[in-house]
Each structure stands twice: as structure tokens, then as C-alpha cells.
Amino acid sequence: MVTELQDSSRKDWDTYFLDIAYMVSTRSRCPRRHVGALLVQGKKLLGTAYNGAPMGVSDCSEAGCMIVEELEVKLLDGQEQMVKKQRCIRTIHAEQNLLLFTDRIDREGSTVYVTDQPCWTCANMLANSGVKEIVYHRSYPKDSDNVTQLMQNKGIIFRNLPSYEPPAQAGMNVIS
């Protein structure tokens, strides 16, 4: 009988895949936030993606960010208040690129590892993609409550790993 010994220096699977997602994010040229995403079936890596402008189009580092402002009504301390959100619309998000460049059959029952909690649009797309689990590190407070509720409604496992430490080579300051 062969017994697998636990090597304390060996990374667990969540750490291993998030490390890869962070290294993929270093390909992004977005000055506001580098995001990387992976598609994993079991322990097999099926695809990677990062946020950026469409292929062949000037990106934010070359042409500047295309910021739009949106207003949203939120309930804060029992009162409705208008909250301003800013989003760059020049880039395709990492999760969207991942869905564009992977096959539906590979997504069925798979896990997506992503450096950042998906925004509302990406969450909607992932909810319809066939994935069973989303694992992320950095929270995205602008859409967090709505996205968490959507994942609960769809029965998608939605895990945040706040104590995870990204590889030093993947570090960047994030603009909220």
C-alpha cells in the first residue's frame, strides 16, 4: 500500500492556483488593477486570462483609462443613498477573457480562481458559464453583496481567501 506523505513545504491547491492567477495578472497593462483568472477542472489547469484591451487595440497604458461614472442606490444605515462608482470600460475583464478563450464543456463543473472578487457583470457571466466554484483573494466592495447573493442563488461555491499571501513578484498597488 502506497501512502502519500504530507510535505509541509508543499503548497495546498488553493495557494498553488492563486499563485498562478497572480503571476498571470502580471501580463495586464492596466494601471488601476491587475487581475488574473484560471479555469481548473479537478487539479488540471485548462486556461488562464488577464484583464486588458482587446487584441490589437491600444491599452490603458498607451491611450489612458476610459473611466465612466455610474450611480447606484444603496441602503446605508437604513436610508437610501446614491453611491458613485467608477469603472474603466477600455479593458475586457480577466473573467470575461477566460470565458472567451475556454470551451463550455471544459467549464462544466470547474473552478475559477481569480485574484479579485468578480464584478457584477463578470459574476453574471460566470453564473451562466457552468462553473461550480469561484475562489478569489481580494474583495471588490463595490459589488460584493449583490455578487455574493447571486452566487448563493445559483448554488455556486463562492470562497474568499483573505489570509492568502500573493507571490512578491506579482505585487501592485490597487486603485479602488
Automatic annotation (TrEMBL):
Which PROSITE patterns does the entry link to? CYT_DCMP_DEAMINASES_1, CYT_DCMP_DEAMINASES_2
Q: Example GO molecular function term?
A: zinc ion binding
Keyword Zinc annotated: yes
Q: Where is the active site?
A: E95 (proton donor)
Q: Name one Pfam family in it.
A: dCMP_cyt_deam_1
Cofactor needs: Zn(2+)
What does the entry list as the binding residues for Zn(2+)? H93, C119, C122
Cite the entry's keywords alphabetically.
Hydrolase, Metal-binding, Zinc
GO terms in the biological process aspect are: pyrimidine nucleotide metabolic process
Gene Ontology annotations for the cellular component aspect, listed alphabetically? cytoplasm
PANTHER family tied to this protein? DEOXYCYTIDYLATE DEAMINASE, DEOXYCYTIDYLATE DEAMINASE-RELATED
- Name the protein family: Belongs to the cytidine and deoxycytidylate deaminase family.
Q: What is this protein called?
A: Deaminase
Tell me what organism the protein belongs to: Paenibacillus baekrokdamisoli
Q: What is the lineage of its organism?
A: Bacteria, Bacillati, Bacillota, Bacilli, Bacillales
